[in-house]
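Sample entry follows:

:::
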Amino acid sequence: MRQALLNSIEIVDRAPLLTELETALEESLRLIAPRGKAPAARELLEGWWWPRICRALQEGGGKISILELEAKLDDIRDAMRRDTLPTDMEHADPTHAELDALSEMMFVQQLRSVGVGNNRIQFAKRDYYRAFTQRSQWTRQNLLFDGEVSKFERTLVEEWQHRFETMRDGLDGTAGDVAIRHAGQGLYTWAESEARFPFRTISARFLNVCSYHILANDLKVGWHRDYSTIFRPEDGGLMPSKMSWDLRWSDRPSEEARNLNPAFCGEILFRTVSEYFKLRRTPFSFPLSFVVLPLVLHKPTRNMLPGRASTAFAGWIAECSPFLAEFPDRVVQLVPITRKPIGRTALPSQVTDDVAEARSAAALLGRWFGSQGSPSTIMQGFGVSP
């Protein structure tokens, strides 16, 4: 076995080292990519190349024709035109676990409220995964213009608004639950089957339908006549669903006073900062401190954190981005709490399972951030800015 393995090795003289491979590929791809887009072209090529190698080895022979490679390079060149966005996630197939993780998100609850069937809900979760991952990829690769997404979403909301009001006008005060659900299904069917508004040059179904799900997840659109009173944003884990910043800590709800007091949050931040400094020997970025509590205190997000500090941040973001839709809002929500403990001494907290998990996650987060690139790159990946 060892002899066969050694006999199959071919040494190529003057080949780039593994650490030099990204730069070498990008230099070669500059001929087909617009200025500044060679890294994005390399990611597209690598995203196709590695699965293709695995398939070639599994099928036997291990050969990939030069014609196939040239065809892929042609596809990348067409996708990298300045007015074109790549849609390589359009037919991505999420795993059952990835779909299950979306089951309690607000957009799914909205669909259930009007009686959308389980199969269509599975399709909705699949579309959400595909398009949210695609939009996140565009953002990471700096392919979007300033305000482009918000302008597209404003178009979607305005197209929905008059259709929603038309639906409401058709439901008088005597309308029963069956009629309301039926009308809501009709509105969603329009979004699912007819809404095809262009995002630059793309009018793909998955992008339009998913974008409506993203808006529904933020309660900017809805399908049930009374969606705005039925639903409200909710969080999990140690984060309460509502906070009152104008109350004294002694007057706040016990859940908030226990889990979001400056002592406990200071301890969480201290653990992250300490582990980061041990590894990097540089001060922890002040803006980056504002993502620590939203990651650690929100249990569903905490459960998605990698098990090892060596996990590549870009890969984790690409895999988990569909589940981080509400993360920027959570960062803003917790800004007042993050500011309070900075520079203070932390006090011991009552130990529960959630507290123990949060402490462990905070330490891991410090090591993980310390193993990654610049703080601005991390924050950009999360969709937040200083």
